[in-house]
Amino acid sequence: MQMRSAPSYFSKQIGFHQRYRIDPVNSIYRKNFCRPKSTAEAKVLAAKKHSESERRRRMRINSQYTALRKILPNLIKMDKASVLAETVRQVRELKKVVADTEAACRGSGSECVIPSGVNKLSLEKCEGKQEGLVKATFSCEDRPGLILDMIRELRSGKGRVVRAEMVTVGGRTKSVLWVKGLGAGSEGIVCLKKALNKVIVDRPSII
């Protein structure tokens, strides 16, 4: 009996698969995983995906209702309709308080310390004893890290803050900065405006 060497044996086995184009692994994979799904299977899969997305959506909605139930004062009924009604009433009441306060400030001639309901920025050059300073006033959403972002952007430009005032009401912040060292031209003011806009407009709050 003639013994065949190992290399010759394996080469013939490999050649057998190559000659007849047999690939057991690939054929099994194609048969079980790559076969086209029937219409019924596709509908079942789509229904499962839709059901899962709806479940996640209901969880998010319920979590927001839970948060409202915790923060709304004097809430008697806990059903969703009552929670929404009380939320609307509270928002309207707060907006009326803000409008009355702003009107009172305008009537007295003093500057309003309540943050504006929209993001906005104003710059003005100071005169008299404060000549050489630029007063920057802006309102934006309050968020963690707001002061650090503001300091980082201001350090990247010209000028330095010599005085700052901040008021936070209802999740919004109003800041007044007095900046020195911007120079006599408009280049420094333009740089200051760009830096503050990055903090106010380009980085909205994260809920």
TrEMBL record:
Subcellular compartments: Nucleus
Species annotation = Rosa chinensis (China rose)
What's the domain of life for this entry? Answer: Eukaryota
Q: Name one Pfam family in it.
A: HLH
Q: What is this protein called?
A: Putative transcription factor bHLH family
Q: Which GO terms describe its cellular component?
A: nucleus
Which keywords, in A-to-Z order, does the entry hold?
Answer: DNA-binding, Nucleus, Transcription, Transcription regulation
Q: Enumerate the spans annotated as BHLH domain.
A: 45-94
Quote the InterPro entries the UniProt record gives: AIG1-like, bHLH_dom, HLH_DNA-bd_sf
Q: Which Gene Ontology molecular-function terms are recorded? A: DNA binding; DNA-binding transcription factor activity; protein dimerization activity
> Matching SUPFAM superfamilies, A to Z?
HLH, helix-loop-helix DNA-binding domain (SSF47459)
